[in-house]
Amino acid sequence: MRSGFDPRNSLAIAALAILGLVPIYSALSGDNFTLELFTRIVIMALAAVSLNFIMGYGGMVSFGHAAYLGLGGYAVGILAKEGIATGFVQWPVAIGVSCLFALVVGALSLRTRGVYFIMITLAFAQMIYYVAIGLDRYGGDDGLTIYKRSNFGSLIDLNNKTLFYCLCLALLIASIYFVARVANSRFGLVIQGARSNERRMRAIGFSTFRYKLVAFVIAGALCGLAGVLLANHTNFISPAMMYWTRSGDLMVMVVLGGLGSTFGPVIGAIAYLLLEEVLSRLTEYPGLILGPILLLVAIYLHGGISSLVTGKRND
Amino acid sequence: MIEPLLQTHGLRKRFGGVIAADAISLDVPAGEFHAIIGPNGAGKTTLIGLLAGEIPPDDGTIHLDGSDITRLAVHRRSALGLARSFQITSLFPEFTALDNVALAVQAHAGHSFRFWAKARTDETLRQPALAALARVGLDARRHMRVDRLSHGEHRQLEIAIALATRPRLLLLDEPMAGLGPEEAAGMVVLLHSLKRELTLILVEHDMEAVFALADRITVLVYGRVIASGPPATIRADPTVREAYLGEQQSAANA
Amino acid sequence: MLYVIEQVLNGVQLGMLLFLLAAGLTLIFGIMDLVNLAHGSLYMLGAYFAATFAEATGSFVLGAVLALAAVFVSGTILEVIAIRPLYGRSHLDHVLGTFGLLLFFNELVRFVWGPAGMTLSLPSEMLTAVQVLPGVYYPFYRLVIILATLAVAALLYALVMRTRLGMLIRAGASNREMVGALGVNIKLLYTLVFGLGAALAGFAGLMQAPILTVQIGMGENILILAFVVIIIGGIGSIRGAFVAAIIVGLIDTLGRAFLPDLLKAALSTNAALTLAPALSSMSIYMLMAGILVFRPEGLFPAAGR
Questions:
Q1: Conformational region of residue B31, where left means phi above 0, alpha means psi within -120 to 50, and beta covers everything else
Q2: How far apart, in whole angstroms, are the C-alpha atoms of residue A185 and residue A110?
Q3: Does the residue C155 lie in any domain?
Q4: What are the pLDDT digits (tens) for A17-35?
Q5: Nearest to C281 among A63, A134, A251 (CB)
Q6: Which chains have 3 or more CB–CB distances shorter than 8 Å to chain A?
Q7: H-run or E-run covering C158
Q8: Residue A55 has what DSSP assignment?
Q9: Whether A162 contacts chain B with CB within 8 A
Q10: Residues 6+ apart with CB under 8 A from A29
Q11: What are A195-239's pLDDT values in tens digits?
């Protein structure tokens, strides 16, 4: 079980190098598009890291993870619309709301397992999607523009795209480190043990439910943070942020990168989003190629892309 | 008169039309090595499941050291000092042997809501785990991934994991199944060394082992206790011979 | 009062569509242990094929029959090419793979039929209303949907309970390995079951085409509802799917019809007015949450797994 930093992982080094070079390249060349693209990649990578925590390490296949992107984003958007523009209020509220939703959904969903769990998390996310559509005051189906990004006063100006990118990247790296540490802590071992053999865990005396619930909440909070960043990045929130195919995208990124590996979600996010981008340039119908690629990955690449490099399986 | 460590009274369980446990009443004093035998389908594994808490009884009670644990969840029974080994080994395959046992130690070392310190270098977890591994003879294989260990080593590991939880009562569900003669002999030696340290309830088919180890034997047939007593009594009991040992004899003679 | 009856019938009709989808899903999951996100794509294909063939032949009924056949064939081809490699894999692999298929089909439909969707008009003979109760009229075609689905449900019951194929299906649902060991041609069985599920989904798609929609992505929304139905009804149980589908159809329809007004009357603040339409769409999820709390295996859990 890959459980710590593996700096020998050449893919990880390459990924981090690319991400680090982007702002420099963009500043030098004036190419803003790449900066924007990679900002989105970094934010989604953060969301993927949070999903990998419960899915890769914990075996909890949450098919409703995009809900937290939406919750984080809507917290920012709703507060902005109601006149509260300061990030010092918006961001904690966003994370708090995400924690609360994760607590409720987790408490209900974790009573089930396997495919039931997958469907139920999916259904709850879809529920919050429909709630968002019903919120006419905040744009309903059309969404809501956020005119000003979260205000942090003299601390940092989020409207500066390069600074914003660096903040996102810093948060991504911090969360990778955080997840890696937690995965190897006592708590993390309980989560991994519950994935490996829950029956055994109970037999030796662990009440696995409470630990899984806490992990679920942590993942929700982290993804809520990604939602906050996403809303700031696009200056826009809409129910589409939490549509179930978004949750599917996140799952693909995690699996593509290799379940339960430290840098897997980052590699997966880069690979998937770049692939999407490239394909939509090549053809008017990217899904015709992307779809089968995903199917082939599911059939042949048990260990995600990482296994191509390391030759290891990730079951 | 000291209360028995484990006491069941009238335990019943049906699965559809099958009566797996039929008014089972047992008394096991502390320190006893108690074996449960019976033909296949007699309900032995169901009994373990009832005692361990995985199967809720339809009727009857279970008391551990005087406390009623009949409705208690599995993990809570472990906290009260009950441990078990599984008939089909149930381990953490992608972890090392040491990791497997250390997790069991961790389960009884306070809560695990510790998010930062590396658990694998925590000596308070590793030392007891190493001790348990050494006890069963596996310390040379401690860094081996469990899915690369042999079946016999899996069985040893099952015992190590159970011991690491510092139990008062150890339920053993066919720990010799699938072991060759040498490994089986080793297991008997190990189990013998545990006598008096713990109370043990052993479900087994290996009659040599049972008669070598047990202080008392209970015989189950179709979920019902048909005899219970010291090995010599059981050996001589005609109903037992007919129901069970007789089968074994004719199988041995065939 | 008329409005209530109409909404109740609409709820039953939605329930019928959900049943068709859920039955296929639960069969495929029960027998092959496969989570199929592309099930909604077959529903979508049913609608598109129906619209296309009806236009080509000038007959709604002929178009429907051809569409049904086309979806069945598409389903079996899909099973052989893309689904077979997924059997025995983790559910996550299923989700990943069939998610890819879903994206593929949405794009394929856009490629073949364009982004705008299609319309399918009912022949004028079907545009009448029928008197279901004294003074209460209900659209004829919607009744056709209800009755046709009931007929399909009866056929399905007969198939599963009284034929050899059905016996194999039931056996496979409770013990997959045994059925294989008995020498039954498992591959063929799986293909037939998948084809059956596809046909059911396609049938639902083509039936709703004249009154609801024929557009890209139409499968996704109803698919989630179908999953909720299966959770409530119990995975692997067709009977459970039937009961749960009607319940879900009724609650969703009646909820959307009556809850906003009820909520607005009960809570008269602005916040309530904002939330009312949103809350009414939550009603089935509340039901699902409730089931999870008290009976996580669903109402009719299939025995043996």
A1: left
A2: 22
A3: yes
A4: 999 999 999 888 888 899 9
A5: A134
A6: B, C
A7: helix C140-162
A8: I
A9: no
A10: none
A11: 999 999 999 999 999 999 999 999 999 999 999 999 999 999 999
d(CA A297, CA A295): 5
- CATH number of the domain bearing residue C48: 1.10.3470
pTM (2 d.p.): 0.89
Rg of chain B over CA atoms, in angstroms?
A: 19
* Interchain proximity A123–C231, CB inside 8 Å: yes
Q: What is the domain range of residue C196?
A: 2-117+137-294
pLDDT score recorded for residue B142: 92
| A214–chain B Cβ distance below 8 A for any pair | yes
Give the 3-state secondary structure of residue B149.
coil
Using the beta-carbon criterion (under 8 Å), do B103 and A202 form an inter-chain contact? Answer: no
Q: How confident is the model at residue C276 (pLDDT cuts 50, 70, 90)?
A: low
β-strand pairing of B59-64 with B199-203: unpaired
| Each residue's pLDDT tens digit, A131-151 | 898 888 888 889 999 988 988
**Helices B151-164 & B123-136, crossing angle to 10 degrees?**
130
Q: What's the rounded Cα separation, in Å, for the pair B1 and B245? A: 34
Domains and CATH numbers, chain B: 1-81+169-254 (3.40.50.300), 91-166 (no CATH)
Is residue C85, in this structure, part of any structural domain at all?
A: yes
pLDDT beyond 90 at B118: yes
CA A205 → CA B71, B103, B106, C182, C248, distances in Å? 16, 10, 9, 41, 40
Residue C131 lies in a domain: no
Instruction: Count A/C contacts: CB-CB distance under 8 Å.
Output: 140
Q: Is residue C122 part of a domain?
A: no
- pLDDT score, position A7: 47
Residue B195: beta bridge partners?
A: B198
pLDDT at B213 over 60: yes
Of the residues A197, A204, A208, A261, the best mutation for testing chain B's interface (the one with the most B CB atoms within 10 Å of its CB) is: A204
Q: Which residue of B has its CA nearest to A212?
A: B113
Chain C residues 195-224 within an 8 A CB cutoff of chain A: 220, 224
Is C107 an interface residue toward A (CB < 8 Å)? yes
- Chain A segment 41-70 residues within 8 A of C by beta carbon are 55, 61, 63
Write out pLDDT tens, residues C157-177.
888 888 887 887 777 666 666
Chain C residues with beta carbon closer than 8 angstroms to that of A122: 224, 227
Question: Could you tell me if B17 and B184 are in contact, meaning their C-beta atoms sit under 8 angstroms apart?
Answer: no
Question: With contact defined as beta carbons under 8 Å apart, do A99 and A224 qualify?
Answer: yes
- Token reading at A182: 């937690």
C-alpha to C-alpha distances, B223 to B36, B55, B149, B244, nearest whole angstrom:
12, 14, 35, 13
Residues 152-181 of A with CB under 8 A from C: none
A vs B, Cβ pairs < 8 A, gives 97
How far is residue A124's CA from residue A101's CA, in Å, rounded to a whole number? 10
**What is the number of domains present in chain C?**
1
